[in-house]
Amino acid sequence: MSVLSQVWCRSLLVCSLLCSALIQLHARPANMSALREKNANTKDENEILPPDHLNGLKMEMDGHLNKDFHQEVFLGKEMEEFDEDSEPRRNRKKLIDIFTKVDFNEDKSVSAKEMQRWIMEKTEEHFQEAIRENKLSFRAVDPDRDGHVTWDEYRVKFLASKGLNEKEVAEKIKNNEDLKVDEETQEVLESLKDRWFQADSPPADQLLNEEEFLSFLHPEHSRGMLKYMVKEIVRDLDQDGDTKLTLSEFISLPVGTVENQQAQDIDDDWVRERKKEFLEVIDADGNAIVTMEELEEYMDPMNEYNALNEAKQMIAVADENQNQKLELEEILKYSEYFTGSKLMDYARNVHEEF
């Protein structure tokens, strides 16, 4: 883990929580789970620190592909309700209900256009959820309730979330005294400060209002911050400093992530997935080079072309009769892909329930 820390600690995008997740997954590069229990009255580090995992985006803030993306944009808020331990018949009914909603023209099949429309709706749903959560997070870091947050106010709350005494930290910052924090925390703070001032919309006043704080936590809500996030990703992956990404740079594994053969096998699959995404989706002009502009378009969650392309990919996974549409039986059969939950006896009583 010390190697990982050396490689990633300079970036806010990879925090201690990500390192913990990597350990649990045999050091596989992966996104953190988006499904956490939320307590409206308790704001912890997860809620005031920009998250690595952004719901509804195909790529994480650390440059890794979001393996749960297709489930997030198919299920929306219902994603939390699908559980491998849930009663299969109950999950099947939920999935049938979703199918009827996606099937806008009620012809008992889902076309790419219908799936595209649904993906855009679910993406907007994730946007609205982020806005609601941001209101709680903003109140947590705005103690004087003046509608603006200074960098020092945020810094106090962040360091308190790391276990430091909030009053002592506030007093030291007020008196311009040196804060004794470990090297990793200091580097995260520096990255946070850079992101903070990027979120400060012109004319810059070094204060963030609620909307600017939303851009700080969720850069996908701001075109300017989306550009900044792309810049950060390219910085982490670009090896020759030309601000562009080659295929080899995009699929390269961070140093120290492969610790045994089992992890190597997992990472081989991960590399194949990234290679396919690079060649077939991100590299729009097919010149084997991804520019920051191409990556920005790919990262834009409200890009309708990307939504249509994702819709076609999702249909291709389960389209057994090759009619470029999805029927209910196909979605039920491939339920694990769409929901993360495998339904047993998927065809049992389908027509009666439908």
Short description:
With 354 residues, the protein is mostly helical. 55% of the residues lie in helices and 3% in strands.
Structural class: mainly alpha
Number of helices in the DSSP assignment: 18
- Biggest sheet, spatial arrangement of strands: 1-6
The H/E string reads HHHHHEHEHHHEHHEHHEHHEHHH
What sort of overall outline do the alpha carbons produce when their principal axes are compared? globular
Percent range of helical residues? 55-70%
Low-confidence stretches: 1-46, 255-263, 346-354
Give a count of the beta strands, DSSP E runs of length 2 or more. Answer: 6
Write down the Rg.
22 Å
Mean pLDDT: 79
Strand content: under 5%
Biggest sheet: strands, sense, closure? 2 strands, antiparallel
Distance between the termini: 50 Å
